[in-house]
Write a structure and sequence with these properties.
Layout lengths: L3 E4 L2 E4 L4 E7 L8 E7 L6 E7 L4 E3 L7 E6 L4 E6 L8 E9 L1 E4 L3 E6 L1
Parallel strand pairs: 2-11
Antiparallel strand pairs: 1-3, 3-8, 4-5, 4-9, 5-6, 7-8, 9-10, 9-11
Length: 114
């Protein structure tokens, strides 16, 4: 079992940047995969970025080159650096930990506006 708490969301202008954080209640070093998902109003939740325990990463095509996922095992935290934000990035962003079972955070709202 692991509890996840996201932070760092907010309102940002088009082209701006935000860094999301996902703090875990225990060590994440052994957790196979940590990921960020997002869900916009009226849309299904979608994978944004994933990082494995070995450091391999995977990104949705829509965010490649703009978003970067990273993990700090010493701080039990996963980050999502988001640059060049667009209105279509507006969503609730969720952190997920996968280790057999899946655990989700409560989400943090990101709103990109002109």
């Amino acid at each position: 079992q692991v509890q996840l708490e996201e932070s760092g969301g907010g309102l940002v202008q088009i082209g701006g940047s935000l860094r999301l954080s996902c703090a875990a209640s225990r060590s994440i070093g052994s957790i196979y995969a940590m990921a960020w998902y997002r869900q916009a109003p009226g849309k299904q939740r979608e994978l944004v970025a994933l990082i494995t325990s070995g450091g391999s990463t995977n990104y949705a095509d829509s965010v490649k080159g703009r978003f970067t996922i990273s993990r700090d095992n010493a701080k039990n935290t996963v980050y999502l650096q988001m640059n060049s934000l667009k209105p279509e990035d507006t969503a609730v962003y969720y952190c997920k930990a996968s280790q057999g079972l899946s655990f989700w955070g409560q989400g943090t709202q990101v709103t990109v506006s002109s």
